[in-house]
From TrEMBL:
One Pfam family per UniProt: tRNA-synt_1g
Catalytic activity: tRNA(Met) + L-methionine + ATP = L-methionyl-tRNA(Met) + AMP + diphosphate
Entry protein name: Methionine--tRNA ligase
Any one of the GO BP annotations: methionyl-tRNA aminoacylation
Native source organism of the sequence: Sulfobacillus acidophilus
Cited Gene3D superfamilies: 2.170.220.10, HUPs (3.40.50.620), Isoleucyl-tRNA Synthetase, Domain 1 (1.10.730.10), Nucleic acid-binding proteins (2.40.50.140)
Amino acid sequence: MGRQVWYITTPIYYPSDNLHVGHAYTTVAADALARFHRLRGEEVLFVTGTDEHGQKIQKKADQAGLSPLDFVTPIVDYIRNPLWQRLGISYDDFIRTTEPRHREVVQSIFQTLLDQGDIYKGVYEGWYCLPDESYWTESKLIDGRCPDCGRPVERVRQESYFFRLSRYQDRLRAHIVEHPDFIQPPSRRHEMLNFIDAGLEDLSVSRTGVSWGIAVPGDPDHVIYVWFDALTNYLTAAGYRQDSERFNAVWPPNVQLVGKEIVRFHTVIWPIILMALGVALPTRVFGHGWLLIGQAKMGKSMGNAVDPVELLDRYGVDPVRHYLLREVPFGADGSYTEEALILRTNVDLANDLGNLLSRTTAMIERFAQGRVPARIAERDDGILAQEAARAYREVEAAMEQLAISDALTSIFRLIGRANKYIEEKKPWDLARSDDRVTLHNVLYGLWETLRVVSVLLTPFLLETPDKIREQLGLEQPVENYREAWFGFDAEGIVVRRQAPIFPRIEKNDALATDGKEVDITASATIDDFRKLDFRIGTVRRCEVVDGADRLLKLTVFDGQRDRTIVSGIRPYYRPEELIGQQVVLVANLKPVKVRGIMSEGMLLAGSDSQELSIVAPTKRLAEGARVK
Ligand code: MSP
């Protein structure tokens, strides 16, 4: 049977502590790739899980006064739900290395390699890094410390089983050279070739004095080394030696995502296990970069771990996924900051996408009685059709390359282009002219672009595609990537405009309430308050500011003169709604230039997570009346 299934894996995580945003990063990336392939109609196997054996976990369990299994189980449960559940991780299999199916496979493989002479018994003398669970020879240490993490190592001397890596060194090297895609990105590939060229030493693959692990078959004083146990999970999950039909359909993995610090395990030890078994190597092992806090890797032991569940509580799933997938080119290291998450949400989701949707549905309501017009001619929406086709191709190409953030950049370029198209075509002017054909084509083009965007966003964001579609008047969820083809016959569909899909996050609302009391005692005195001059004014004119999606330019009569006020309320009001409206303005602010326009004051407005409303008197007052 040939291969039919697109198989992707994440590393299996140590359940020694709750996971942090760094772990979520790998898993969300794998999820977006899995969803993308499913959307293209492929059958996908997406596997993640937990790496539960080893000395480190044993020590932690001892400290907690629990058996290792009792110690890890609640952490594993928490990882599955709420963590992966709420992040929308659509795994097909979650493997725990403590499961019987896994133990059987590990022992059976170990036995085969022993029988073949690839594993032999000897004496290990050298250094061990406990936090990394890795063995080192004297020559590999850097300043006497672990070359991977820089932490102190401990001296060990014990009887041990060894895996003859050296026997496969040349074959592995040849494989890496002949398959440029095997290790990606290329920088990691060069690193690994250098590592191999320095010479592979046989690897100690068992320990004595540790009880928490899988026993060496026939020699129960020895426990199999955690990395040998852990790497084998990818075989277990594929049904190796247990379900040959499944295994043949699934193997080898198409993509294995790993953090850069564990590329070595996945591109030296892992392929050699497979070579020794006579099993095909994975098509691609991709080593992605780290999320950093300042200059340091985010990590529990670094004391800078950010809890993803807290972020989900605060911002919701799509802003978190969008940030993780878009912010850092996949492969490179990148800084994590919550401010950047807020900015991404406000700029991309609330502003660019949210405004395009609310403007488009509002215009269809006003200029086409709420129904999507027929596409009469391609002459007007041609540019959007072209840009949509380009995004369709670019997303596909980027996802093939695992350039996930590039895929999102292409989608947001299309959104940006559509916003610009509104400014160029000025549907409000077309509505005043007799040119219904152009007006209708423009409205169709915008609606259709948003429909395409809802399809393209489907692998990345969970709730947003349906929210967009609901407002567009579409009932069906997205089913196939090909639906992202521009030109859908939408005539007569009734749009359903609702509140903005992404309310803007006010940084202070989000950050200041982060478990801390907001200090309101240190606030203004009555004298401070009196310094501000609040007055009633009436809006006489109101227009949009070209090239600024958020801004309206208002002319407000303050009892003495007309003032120009530029205000960021455009997502919430149509200009004509405000004409004649009374407002409260702060009259003695120093004028500031906004987009080249001198703004002479500010309007008072209130906002919550859904809406923004300007503050107005409940009875009409003379312009210039003081508000205090
Ligand atoms: N259990 C091993 C993997 C065995 S795979 C056969 C392990 N576990 S881990 O929990 O320590 O980390 C797993 C993965 O989490 C890393 O490879 C990496 O993908 C991810 N990350 C952990 N911290 C990270 C960051 N700060 N940034 C990005 N990814 C990070 O290693």
